[in-house]
Structure formats: structure tokens, C-alpha cells
Design brief:
Elements lengths: L9 E6 L4 E5 L19 H4 L2 H31 L4 H24 L25 H5 L10 E5 L6 E3 L4 E3 L4 E3 L4 E3 L4 E3 L4 E3 L4 H29 L11 H9 L6 H34 L3 H5 L10 H9 L39 E3 L2
Antiparallel strand pairs: 1-2, 1-3, 3-10, 4-5, 6-7, 8-9
Subcellular location: Membrane
Main location: membrane
Protein name: Palmitoyltransferase
Length: 361
């Protein structure tokens, strides 16, 4: 049997002498507790080091946002609207406040699963029925011993062990190596905020994306107007290519090096941020409406949430979800109406997730 030290796939192993332990099995199924990516070819994270992105992406994002705000509010807007500049600056500052504060809440809000916090009376089975083994109630793993083993893949809606955390985790809870823990209702890892998006900080992520998209549209509108009024007369279409613009400025064109910097950082940086924010916002809204996490959508896991859209909003933003878009508040002031251990309202798949039997001869 091919066994690896990873938390991507949980397996339940029965030892021939009656003992039980948990390990992980390399498996390609998309219907089980976790999935394993294909071994063919180089994956994106083998080319781009995720630990590098995890460490430095927040600084890049914060610097980009502050730079665009500073240039826009204190350089472009005063030249565009000398009489009404303060109104536009207040609007831009409000967008900056919403983006930075929600970004900070994403970074600081912990959605990890802690054994000491979940109520014992809600030891969950989820919509996928099974008998809770005694080992789950003990919250520990029996040491691995040498023996012939039969392994079976955990269904997605079943509690499963995490080898890294050394305890059992509820359904929809996945381990993140970058964050170093199991995240309740994990959606994905956000490199911009250096934290996983899960149960408690999904609300801040949605509001963050919303205001980032609005702020990008605000900046693009005024940025194009500023470019046409003050720069375009001395530029050509060749200046839209950064390297050509740089060469033309060296060779004596009217395009200055300052204009090159504005085009590269403001133009292409804003374009990349706009596209990335818009795509993530659409994905996040779709996930919220259908009641699935990003992990479940990506791996085509059968999840049906029969609740109304209002109930789904409350499961993310809390009972007063309307105020989340005006004043971001700490999670404990308005906790989500959600049970991250039971998921009793979800409709289990008509056909049970397959159980994969692997026998060591």
C-alpha cells in the first residue's frame, strides 16, 4: 500500500490484531474526505513557492493599495477636480478604510478548529450517517504498529483524523500547512492576507472583495480621465508597452521616466488587481449562493444547501448581515448562525461517497 505523510487524504486503518490507527493514503478520488492532486506534470505550486507568497504577498498588496491611494488622492484628483477635490478624497478614503480594515480582520481572525472549544454534546455525525468510534471521543490517535492493514477512505461528511494536528476534525474542516492548523469550513488560503478563509473570516473576505472591486472601478474611471487630459497628448500607442515606453524616454521621446512609472505601476498594477478581485468576488458570491466552499466547488463534491439566501447570508455575516458592509466589527459581536460541527441542514448525496479499500498483501 502506498502511504505518505500528508494530511491531504485521511484513511482509517484496521490492524489485524484489532487496534486502530489513522494515516493518510495517496489517492485521486474527488469524493472522499480530501483530495490529492495529480502527479503528472509540474503543478503551479512547484513553480511558485507558496511559502514565498505567504510571506511577502501581504506587503506587496498593502504597498500597492497605499501607493495608488496616495497618487490618486493627492496628485491626480486635485488636478482633475480642483473645486470638488475634497468630496472625491473623502470617497477614496472611505474605500481605503473598508479595504484595509477588512483585510486586517481577514488576517487576524482565526477560523481554526480547536478541540477544547467545541461542545461535547454536539459530537457530530453530519448528514452522512456513521457510528462515532471511541477513538474520536478520546481525541487522540493510537500509535502506528507493524502489521497487515486494511485501509478505507473516509467519506467527506465523516469526522476524520489529522496527522499534523494529532486529533480528529469535523466535516468541511481541512488542514493548511501554511497556517499550521485545521480550518473550519475552509474555502482557500488567501496569500494577500496571509491566512485561510474559513468560518469566521469569510464575511470580511467578501466585504474586502466588494470594496476592492468598487475602488478599482472608481480608480479606473478617474485614472483614464487623468491620463487623457494630462498625458496622452505627449504619448503614443507604443507607450502602452512598458519596455517600449522606457526605451523611448531614454532616446529622447516626450515620454518621461515618471510617465513610465505611472503607466507600469498604476496602469498594469490596477488592471491585475481589478481582474483578480472581480474574479474572486464572483466566485465567492457563487459559493455563498449555492452553499458550497471553494474546496467543494473545485473538487465537484455533492453538497446541497436548502436554506434561503437570507439564511445563507446569516450563516456568513451573522444575524445583522446588512451592517457588515458599512462597519466591520469583530466576529464575537455578531457570530455567524452556523454549526461548523454538525451540518444537519445539508442534504447528503443520493449516492454515498465511494469507500476505497486498499489491502496490504
Amino acid at each position: 500500500i502506498n502511504i505518505q505523510d500528508s494530511t491531504d487524504m485521511a484513511a482509517h486503518c484496521h490492524i489485524s490484531n484489532g487496534s486502530t490507527f489513522s494515516t493518510s493514503v495517496k489517492n485521486g478520488s474527488h469524493h472522499g474526505r480530501h483530495t490529492q492532486s495529480s502527479d503528472s506534470g509540474l503543478g503551479i505550486w512547484e513553480i511558485i513557492n507558496p511559502y514565498f507568497l505567504h510571506q511577502w504577498m501581504p506587503y506587496f498588496f498593502f504597498g500597492e493599495v497605499v501607493f495608488m491611494y496616495s497618487v490618486g488622492c493627492f496628485f491626480a484628483l486635485p488636478r482633475l477636480y480642483p473645486e470638488t477635490v475634497h468630496i472625491h478624497q473623502v470617497i477614496g478614503t472611505f474605500f481605503l478604510y473598508e479595504i484595509v480594515v477588512n483585510w486586517w480582520f481577514i488576517h487576524r481572525t482565526d477560523s481554526s478548529f480547536k478541540v477544547s472549544e467545541y461542545p461535547k454534546e454536539k459530537l457530530a455525525t453530519g448528514p452522512y450517517p456513521f457510528e462515532v468510534p471511541e477513538i474520536i471521543q478520546q481525541n487522540k490517535l493510537v500509535p502506528i504498529i507493524q502489521a497487515h492493514i486494511n485501509t478505507s477512505h473516509y467519506p467527506y461528511w465523516q469526522w476524520s483524523p489529522c496527522l499534523s494536528c494529532k486529533w480528529w476534525r469535523p466535516p468541511r474542516c481541512h488542514h493548511c500547512k501554511l497556517c499550521g492548523g485545521c480550518i473550519l469550513k475552509r474555502d482557500h488560503h488567501c496569500f494577500f492576507a496571509r491566512n485561510c478563509i474559513g468560518l469566521k473570516n469569510l464575511r470580511y473576505f467578501l466585504v474586502f472583495l466588494f470594496y476592492t472591486c468598487v475602488a478599482c472601478a472608481f480608480t479606473v474611471f478617474h485614472g483614464v480621465n487623468f491620463l487623457l487630459q494630462f498625458y496622452w497628448a505627449d504619448m503614443s500607442y507604443l507607450d502602452l508597452v512598458p519596455m517600449l515606453s522606457f526605451l523611448r524616454s531614454i532616446l529622447g521621446s516626450n515620454t518621461t521616466l515618471a510617465q513610465v512609472g505611472v503607466m507600469v505601476i498604476m496602469g498594469y498594477g490596477l488592471l491585475a488587481l481589478s481582474l483578480l478581485s472581480f474574479m474572486h468576488f464572483i466566485d465567492a458570491c457563487f459559493s455563498l449562493v449555492v452553499g458550497k466552499t471553494g474546496f467543494e466547488l473545485e473538487n465537484n463534491i455533492d453538497v446541497k444547501d436548502p436554506r434561503s439566501v437570507t439564511k445563507k447570508l446569516q450563516s456568513v455575516f451573522g444575524p445583522h448581515w446588512q451592517y457588515a458592509f458599512i462597519l466591520p466589527t469583530p466576529y464575537f459581536l455578531s457570530p455567524a448562525i452556523e454549526d461548523p460541527y454538525n451540518w444537519s441542514y445539508l442534504i447528503p448525496p443520493k449516492k454515498k461517497n465511494p469507500v476505497i479499500q486498499l489491502v496490504d498483501p
